[in-house]
Amino acid sequence: MRAVAAPLAVVGAGVAGLSLGYALARRGRPVVLIERGRIGAQGASSGPAALLNPHRGHSARAHEEDRAGLAAFWRLAGELQARGFDPGATRSGVLRVAPDARRARAWRKLPGVQWLEPLDVPAPYRAPHGALLVPGGGWLRPRALLGALHGAALELGVEVREGVRVLRLEPRDGRVGVVTSAGTLTASEVVLCVGADVSEGLPLPPLERVAGEVVEVATEPLAAEPELALGGSVYAAFAAGRAFVGGSHRDPDVPDPEAPKRLLQRLDRVLPGLGAQPGLSLWSGVRARGPTPRPLVERLADHVTFFGGLSGRGFLCAADVAERLAQALAGRAGGGLRLEP
Predict the structure, then answer these.
(1) How far apart, in Å, are the Cα atoms of 248 and each of 73, 100, 196, 210?
(2) Which of 216, 217, 191 is nearest to 204 (CA)?
């Protein structure tokens, strides 16, 4: 009788875990996906909007990793749509307004963007120094994407266990015992995609936890409905008369009730009229950041890998990193694990 292969266990069903579970299932690997809560209901992956923009930071220069991430995301979105699922993505383009003349001079030279002089910037954006346009960028509704990945993974045979907490991992003759609140399973490999969840008993790399907010406001005061998502120190996505505004960063243990107000004040410099708007809703969440701004994939022990530390690049890079990690795990021999660029 043919032996049944032990499944690969993915712990955590945020954007990292679901992207990896889906990528592994596409390669025919048996996968068990374990989520301590409900998919899309908590964590940094549950926010109302996320930007898809590789031109980040003060330099606005896109790293190759981020360019690859954006391309991989749109491929994934196309696959999910072909399977009948809505990935919640809008390829609107992303506008970054230059804050001063010096930044404008530097940004004009960047490859992969379209430079807009002040008179070329569409209404209702205010850009006295001009702006760069990322035509291939956009934004997404994270819960819709997680729902699409969840549905596609189920169709491919992934076993999803929600409301189950992993308590500890135990080595077992070349495999791993995954002890959970609902019993124990034996896995051939375990990948921890737990985000900012601090789980005692699990071997996790050092991570910094960063909190942030997204505030929703009405765009009614504007003369025209914005169509381009907005990138930069404050970001915004627009749909159906609403703006979803983010960009705050704070210590998760130190509440900052003024953060939403500051976000809207910064947005008001680019879209005058929104700074005085009352917030319609407020989302707050915590994300994990590794020692560098890049996504973190680290071998923690035999048959145990960590995938996370995505910081603000989770939705931009998760699909690409998950594909490469799935390929490495599917072809892994012995104790090595290598992600091909």
Answers:
(1) 24, 21, 17, 9
(2) 191
Q: Who contacts 119 (Cβ-Cβ below 8 Å, separation ≥6)?
A: none
Burial class (CB in 10 A: 0-12, 13-18, 19+), 42: middle
CA distances from 131 to 3, 100, 274 (A): 60, 10, 19
CA-CA distance, 286 to 292, in Å (whole number)? 17
Can you give the pLDDT of all 341 residues of the chain as single tens digits?
234 467 999 999 999 999 999 999 999 999 999 999 998 877 788 899 999 999 999 999 999 999 999 999 999 999 999 999 999 999 999 999 999 999 999 999 999 899 999 999 999 999 999 999 999 999 999 999 999 999 999 999 999 999 999 999 999 999 999 999 999 999 999 999 998 887 778 888 988 999 999 999 999 999 899 999 999 989 999 999 999 999 988 898 898 999 999 999 999 999 999 988 888 899 999 888 888 878 899 999 999 999 998 888 889 999 999 999 999 998 753 334 455 44
Is residue 158 within 8 Å of residue 25, measured between CB atoms?
yes
Buried b (16+ CB within 10 A) or exposed e, 172-183: eeebbebebeee
**Per CATH, is 1-92+137-202+292-341 categorized as 3.40.50.1820?**
no
Q: What is the pTM of this model?
A: 0.93
CB 186 within 8 A of CB 171: no
Q: Is the dihedral of CA 106, 109, 112, 116 positive or negative?
A: positive
Burial classification of residue 34, based on how many CB atoms lie within 10 Å of its CB (0-12 exposed, 13-18 middle, 19 or more buried): buried
C-beta atoms surrounding 30 within 10 Å: 17
**Domain coordinates of the chain in residue numbers?**
1-92+137-202+292-341
Give me the helix-helix angle, 64-82 and 142-155, nearest 10°: 60
